[in-house]
Amino acid sequence: GATHTAFVMEHTIEQLAHKAGKDPVEYRRALYTKAGAKRHLAVLDLAAQKAGWGAPAPAGWTRGVAVHESFGSVVAQIAEVKLENGVPKVGRVVTAVECGTAISPDQIAAQMEGGTCYGLSAALHGQVTLKDGVVEQTNFDTYRVLRNSEAPKVETYIVPSANPPSGIGEPGTPVIGPAVANAILAITGQPSFSQPLVKSV
């Protein structure tokens, strides 16, 4: 349930920040500080620092942020997004993760990269349709997935922690969808109420 839960929660928070006229990172920072959510605050701050949040994004690009906890780990992602003919393109994703004691940093980075691309594939293109009670998609020629040429650059930063090691296989997947949707909201002013995002922009 982490994927759709993260999307609903983080895109809702983004809409609240948008309506309040607040910076999305500062809005979350205030929530986490009030709640005493130190791990969430740590990943948010690290991702914002490494992504250069507060400085202008590269020309033509907009940043979106999302934070989610799953499988005992907390991940923040900032995605740089632009629309090309109405279709979102993700160029760079800055990821900060607090997964307890980092046993194998290279493996953590690899899991974040793979999970991000897997989640981005689902958020942008993943759709199963039925016709006369039969699934129409039978293979990758009819079920669209992320292509190599569409994969963003993923940077992973690990928050130093003395907590016990926690999950790292899936926590990178739920965060990218809302991060992209939040960037689209910043670009268009319109929230995304459904996925895949390529059909909702």
Can you walk me through this structure?
There is one protein chain. This protein is α+β, with helices and mostly antiparallel strands. The chain has five helices and six strands; from the N terminus they run H-H-H-E-E-E-H-E-E-E-H. The protein has helices at residues 2-20, 24-35, 38-51, 105-124, 173-188; strands at residues 62-70, 73-84, 87-98, 130-131, 134-135, 153-158. Strand 2 and strand 3 form a beta hairpin. Helix 4 crosses helix 5. The longest helix has 20 residues, at 105-124. The radius of gyration is 17 Å and the shape is globular. The relative contact order is 0.22. The model has no long low-confidence stretch (mean pLDDT 95).
Give a topology summary.
Elements: H1 2-20, H2 24-35, H3 38-51, E1 62-70, E2 73-84, E3 87-98, H4 105-124, E4 130-131, E5 134-135, E6 153-158, H5 173-188
Parallel strand pairs: 3-6
Antiparallel strand pairs: 1-2, 2-3, 4-5
Helix pairs in contact: 1-5, 2-3, 4-5
